[in-house]
Amino acid sequence: MRSDLPQNFVDELTKQGRRPIQLLVFYFDSRIVYVTDTDKVTTSDEIYYIVEDWGSLSSVTDLSKIGKGQNQPTKTYSISLLNYGENKFSEIFFDRNPLNVRVDLYQAFLVDGATHIKAPDCFPTNKPKVQTDWVLNDVFLVQDPIQYEESSGLLKLDLVSLNQYANPYIGQLDPVDNIFYPVVIGAVSKVPGQADPANPMASLAQHLDSTGETIVIADRDMLVAGFPESGTILLNFELISYTAIGGDDNNELTIDSRGLDVAGFSAAARHSIGDPITLYGHEYIYTFSQGPVDQAGPLYVDGELYDGPHTIYADRNPIQVGFPNRPPILQVDGAQPMESYQQELVSDDWTQDYWYVRQSSDEPCSSAGWINDDTGGEDPSVYVQGKYASYNRPGNTSLCTWYQYSTFMPGHNRVSDFSKLNQLDFYYHTQFVNEYDYDKCEDNIAAFPKFDVSGGWFNTGWQTHEQLEDVEEILTITDKTWAELYSSPQWLVLYDHQVQEDVSGEAGCRYGSKIYNYQLTVYYTWDAAVINDANITLDIGDPAAGPANPIDTIKWVFSKIGVGSFIDLVTFDAAAQWCADKGYGFSGLVPGDERCRDVLNDLCRQCRAAIYYNAGLIKIYMREDFTNKTPDGVFPESKVRLKSIKIAHQKITDIANFVSIRYDPASLNIDFQKSYSTSDENSIQKYGLHDYVFDAPLIIDDTMAIDLADHYLEELAEPDFYITFDAYMEFFSYEQGDIIEIVTDYANIHIFKGEIVNIVRRHGSGKNTSINLFTVTIRSNKFVPPIVFKSAEALSVLDGGVVESRPVLFLTGVEQANIADHGEFTKCVGDSCLGAWYDYDYIMKFMVCGR
Amino acid sequence: MKFELDTYVLNFKDPAQYPASRPMQKVQAVDRKANGELEVESFDFSIQSRVLVFEDMSEEDYIALWDWYDNIANGAANTFKFTDEYGDQFDVRIVDDFFNFRETSLKLYSGTMTLEIVQ
Question: Which of B25, B41, B46, B47 to probe the A interface (max A CBs under 10 A)?
Fold first, then answer.
C-alpha cells in the first residue's frame, strides 16, 4: 500500500464531484515538457494541452503463470495526444531515441474553489520531491515505436514501466574469447576455467636431440599462434632461445642456444614428437567468471589443490589466473600437482652399499690406472653390486697393483640414484659436490652415504683434476637413451662420475676421493608430468560470508541495469529481512548471456519474491499464504461499481499438485545434484496428476529448497479463484500484493478475500469524461470461498428441514463451473464461524467442480 | 440577430424563429455503485449552446449564411460574435457536422444551426 499520498489528495478521493487532473512530464534532453488536457495547470515551463485520450494504465500479468514464475509484470499505459499546430509535439520525438525519454505521470485534484493548480516540482529528476497536491502515479519510459496518424492528428504513445530498461545482458561478452563468462552469486566452489585462446601453444613435429639446431613445429603457424619473431621457448624442461621463425608455414625455429642456464630448467636434452612447446616469459591465462570479486581462490587442477606457481587476478573482469611460462603441470602417476620443476632426492633415498671389485689384473686400466670405459661401463649386461668407499692413499704410485688385490673401490666414485622412470626417453641432470679430504679416509667410510645399484650402469665420462682442490662437478647425461643402455624393465639409473687425481708425473693412477655430501636434482621428464588444463577450477567468493541474500542479489541486478536509485528501500529491506530470517541464500552461477529481465524472473522464482512498479519505485514482496493475514483494506459495496464483480477460476491444467525442485548444480546450471519432490494427494485425486519441475541452480541449501517446493505446492495445488471488480478512487493507495476483502450484497455473495494480482487504471479526464476506475483482479484463497448468507432469510429450516436451493453464484469469465448439489451447512454460534471476520447466522459451503 | 467576425457582418433579415433552444450540458462522469448510490466526477465546465431554427428563410439570407459557414466561420474553425434576439453578444462557433438548409418552397429555406458558446 502507498503511504505517501498527500493529505489534500486523500481527502479528495472519497468526495463527490471531485475534479481530477492528470499531468505527464516528459524529460527530454534539453528541457522538461508538461502535457495535460485541461488549462488548469500553471507553470513557467513548456506546457501543452493536447491529451486526447488517457487510455488505461494496466499492469500486464499472465494470471495463469503467476505462481510459475511470471514474477515481474510490466505496466503499460497508452495515451493519445493531439499533434497539431506549429510546435508539433511529434517534432520533439523524431530526432531523439524514444526509448530514452522518461515520462512521469502525476495526478491531482482541483480542490474546492481553486481554478488552477501549479505544476509539480520535478527536480531532482531521479527522485521526485514530496508534493503537496500532486501524486506521482508512476515513472515510465516511452516504448518504441511511437505511432502518428496524419488523418486524425493523433500521436499515440505507449509508456511502459521501468523494467523496459532491463534489456542488457547480465554479463559482458569477452571480445577475446567470444564467451559470456558466468556471474558468481554468493560463494561458489570449483568454477571452471577456460584457456585464453591467445596462449601460445605448439608441439614438436619431429624428434629433437640434444644438439639439434632447428625445431620443426607440428601443424601450426608460429606467428599466428602468438610466438614472437625471436624469443625463448620452453620445451619440456628445456629453455631454448631462437632467432627466427622460418619455413613456408612459419613452422620452423632457428635455434640460438639450447638449455639456457636458468634455475629450475634443464640443460639441452632430447625431445620427442608431440612434446609441448610454450613461450617462456609469457603468462598463460585462464578465465573463470565475471569480476571483480573480493575473494577468489584456492585454485584446483584436476580436482586437487594446486600448489604450483600461479597468480589469481580477482580484480579483473573476467577473473583470471595466470601460470608462468606454461599451463599447470601435474605428475602423471597419482596426478599430484608438481610443486616445481625439480624434486630433490634426499640422502635417505640412498639405502644400500655399493662396491665394485676389479676382478683380475687383466681388467683394463687406463693409462693413468683407471678402469676405463670399456669395462662394464656401457655394457648393459653387467650387474654390479657395490659398496661405496673411498680410499685415500696419497703418494702411492703403484695403485694399479694395489688395486688388483684389494677390495677397495678404486678411485671410482659412483653416485647412483634410483629414479623411477616411465618412459624410455630419459635425461637427467645431476650435480654433486666433491670434496677432497686426505685425512682419515677410513674413519669416514662409515659416514658416507651408501647407495645401492643393481641393474645396469653406464659410464658418463671422467674428469681430470690437476691438483688438490675442491671439485664441483656437474655432469649431464643427455645423449644416451635408455634403450641403448638397458633392456631390462628395471628402472634404475646409474650415474657415474669419476674423479681422478693425478699425481703429477707418476704412474700412480688413482686416488680416492670422498663425497661428503651430494645433492641430486632430478628433473622430471616430460612423461612424468603432463600439462593438465582440461580441468582447472577456482573457488570464487568468500565461503565464510555464506550465500548471498537473494534480495541483495536482485538489488545488484537492478543497479547493473542502472535503475538502482528507483529501488524502494522499505519493501526491499523488509524482504531482505524475511529472507535472512528464513535462511534463504543464493550460491551459484548465472549464465552471462541472459538478459537482466530474465535473470530477475529466475531470481524471483527461486526465492518466491515478486517485483512490481508503482509510484516511481521498484518494490518487492515475498509470496506467502495469506489465508490468515489481516487484510490491508476492506471494500464494501459503496466503493465497488455496480454489476462489476466477476469470478473465474484458474484452469485446472495450470495447477501443480506434484512439485519437484532440482538444485545444487555441479556446474553451470546443469548436473543438478539434488532434488526434492512433494505432492498433494487430495488435489491429485480430484484433478489428476499435474506435475511441475522447476530448476533452482542458485540454491544449495536443503532447507531452502524444501521450503520453496512446499510453498509452490501450497500455492498451486488447488485452482485459484480470480475475482475481478471495478473500484473507484478510494482504491488509489492499494498496490499489487496487498490483501483485500470485498464485502457486497450482490447476489448474496458477501465476502471475498484475496491478494491483488492485477490492476488496470482507467483515467478520467475532461476529454473522455469517464470515471476514474480501477479494474482489480484478486486471487482468492485456494479453497472455494465460503458463500455466506447474511441472515436466516435464505434458509427455510435447520435440523432436518430442507434447504431451498437457490442459485447463489453465477460464475462468469473464462471458466464456467458446475455447482455441486451438496454442501455443508453450519449455524453460527458465538464465534464459531469464520473467526475474526464477521459474525453471521449461518454459513453454507459448497463444492464447485471444475471441468 | 447578427454574426460578426472582424469586418464581416451577417445581419439576418429573417432571424431565427421560436422555439429558441439554449441547451446547457454539464460535463460530468456519473456511474453507479454497487450499493445503489452514484459516483460523480465533475470536470468543472458546462457546455452552453444556442440552437437557431430558421424557417422560410429568404434566399439572400441563405446565400449569406452559406458563405458565412463556408468561408468566414469556416465551419467550426473560427469563432465569431453572435448577437441574439435580446442583444446579448457571445463568442460562438458553429458546431454542426454539415450545413443542410432545405429549400422547403421556392426560394425559401429552412434548417437549424447549432452554435456553441466559447468558454
Answer: B41
Going A399 to A404 to A408 to A411, the CA torsion angle's sign is positive
Q: Which three cell numbers stand for residue A351?
A: 639405502
Q: Which regions of chain B does DSSP assign to beta strands (E)?
A: 2-5, 8-11, 17-21, 24-32, 38-58, 80-83, 89-94, 102-105, 108-117
Q: Is B42 within 8 Å of A19 when comparing Cβ atoms?
A: yes
Q: pLDDT class for A367, splitting at 50, 70, 90?
A: very low
**Complex-level ipTM:** 0.78
| CB A310, CB A328: distance < 8 Å | yes
Rounded Cα gap, residues A297 and A311, in angstroms: 10
- Cβ contact (<8 Å) for B43 and A637? no
Q: Are A333 and A422 in contact (CB under 8 A)?
A: yes
Q: A642 vs B34: CB contact, 8 Å cut-off?
A: yes
CA distance to A531, A600, A711, B43, per residue, from A577 (Å): 48, 19, 18, 46
- What residue type is A484 in one-letter code? E
Q: Which residues, listed in sequence order, are joined to residue A173 by a DSSP beta bridge?
A: A180
**What pLDDT is recorded for position A736?**
87
Q: Is the pLDDT of residue B109 over 60?
A: yes
The three-state secondary structure class of A411 is coil
Distance from CA of B10 to the nearest CA of A (A): 29
- Quick check: B32 and A636 CB within 8 A? no
DSSP assignment string, A90-110: HHHHHTS-GGG-EEEEEEEEE
Instruction: Quote the CA–CA distance of A608 and A600 in Å, as a whole number.
Output: 11
Phi, psi of A730 (to 5 degrees): -60, -15
Alpha-carbon A676 to chain mean position: 23
CA distance B31 to chain A (A): 7
Nearest to A769 among B27, B34, B38 (CB): B27
The C-alpha cell of A160 is what? 511502459
What number of CA atoms fall less than 13 Å from residue A851's CA on the CB side? Answer: 10
Contacts of A13 (CB under 8 A, 6+ apart): A729, A730, A732
Look up residue A53 and give its three cell numbers: 485520450
The top-scoring range by mean pLDDT among A737-746, A806-815, B104-113 is: B104-113
Q: Which residues of chain B neighbour A637 with C-beta distances below 8 Å?
A: 33-35
Task: Report the C-alpha gap between A644 and A727 in whole angstroms.
Answer: 9
Are B31 and A636 an interchain contact pair (Cβ–Cβ within 8 Å)? no
Q: Rounded to an integer, what distance in angstroms lies between the CA atom of residue A255 and that of residue A233?
A: 10
Distance from CA of B46 to the nearest CA of A (A): 11
Cβ(A134)–Cβ(A120) below 8 Å: yes
Average of pLDDT values for A199-216? 85
Closest residue of chain A to B37, computed from CA coordinates: A638
In chain A, what residues touch B33 (CB-CB under 8 Å)?
A: 637-642, 728
Query: pTM, whole model, 2 decimals?
Result: 0.69
The residue ranking higher by pLDDT, B6 or A374, is: B6
Chain A residues within 8 A of B38 when measuring between CB atoms: 16
Residue of B37, B39, B44 lying closest to A771 (CB–CB): B39
Would you call the peptide bond into A298 cis, given omega within 30 degrees of 0 as the criterion? yes
Residue A13 reports pLDDT greater than 80: yes
Is B29's CB within 8 Å of A764's CB? yes
- Give me the pLDDT at residue A840, please: 44
Of B32, B33, B43, the CB nearest to A19: B43
Q: Please answer yes or no on whether B33 and A644 come within 8 Å at the CB atom.
A: no
Closest by alpha carbon to A427, among A385, A350, A489, A485? A485
Closest CA to A165 of A92, A291, A74: A74
Please list, in sequence order, all residues whose beta carbon lies within 8 angstroms of the beta carbon of residue A735, skipping any fewer than 6 positions away.
A1, A2, A612, A614, A619, A756, A759
